Amino acid sequence: MIPNVSRKRPTIRDVAREAGVSYATVSRVLNGRDWVSPEAVRAVQDAISRTGYTTNQHARSLATGRSGSIAFLLTEPQHLLFEDPNFSVLLRGVAQALSDRQLTLILMIASTPEERSRTIAYLNGGHVDGVLLVSPHSGDPLLKQLVQAQVPIVACGQVLGFEAAISSVSADDLGGGRSAVEHLLAAGCRRIATITGPQDTFGGVFRLRGYTDALTTHGLAVDPAYVVHGDWSRESGAAGMRTLLERVPDVDGVFAASDAMAAATLPVLREAGREVPGDVRVVGFDDSGLAATTDPPLTTVRHPLERISEEMVRLLVDVINGRTPLSITVPTSLVLRASSPA
């Protein structure tokens, strides 16, 4: 005779009993609410592992009207998800933060009209409870469509023109840009150029504003010849550096608004016979893994993406639960390396 080895499916009450907490506490942890102590969260998560509890997602959706899924929506071409190290760091952090809250991650790309159309149709179908919006560009028609879809949204970086409608978590791009240029000024540089990020993004606009603020605060004029615009990529960094050397052959400091652009300036300067940091100091922005591997390693502004990803998920859960949209700014810090030492 074959023994009956089936057993009752573990319930929330089983998890509560195992964790030594109330049913309500387990429910709050499972629903991603924040008014639970870290100790209680760990106890519940450990109890879930021991009991083998799994959420009956269909029953939960019927009861709550929620899908338990969150979209990570990138508005750039899909190849950048793998080429730009910032996106992979952000995606990894978001995935962990959602997992901790028993929420499912759905990756979506919307950089073409066809992709935008499919994205809006999917969101209007109620398949996700909220959207984590990455790399938004002002003027993108998707932004208005997202707001009209009335889905909770938190963006990485403020969305220019939609600040009142879309919550955001941003690095202190203004302060970071200012600190980069003030470092170059303190090192004795006076002919400081910049390669900006896209001017339809919050980071591109405010890192440039940090550059101009630092110069004007120190009594230096902002010369348009010293400013070239890039798109975060290596290619735009190299092209920008060549343009700057044509315009300002005696440039002695460069602030590039991304590490990828900053890294691309180094071989261009080397080919032109300019030593870094002896002749020209270079500062980037991100403190990505790339920064420590260049020759010389990059001084850069640290973009705290791990914290930003956690804050984005926390804020999105709050917005889903009815919180009014708001913006959070996370501080940056300068990391000194050989391309512009102290």
From TrEMBL:
GO terms for molecular function: DNA-binding transcription factor activity; transcription cis-regulatory region binding. It comes from the Bacteria. The lineage of its organism: Bacteria, Bacillati, Actinomycetota, Actinomycetes, Micromonosporales. PANTHER family: HTH-TYPE TRANSCRIPTIONAL REGULATOR GALS, LACI-RELATED TRANSCRIPTIONAL REPRESSOR. Pfam families: LacI, Peripla_BP_3. It comes from Actinoplanes regularis. This is Transcriptional regulator, LacI family. The keyword DNA-binding applies. Residues 10-64 form the HTH lacI-type domain.
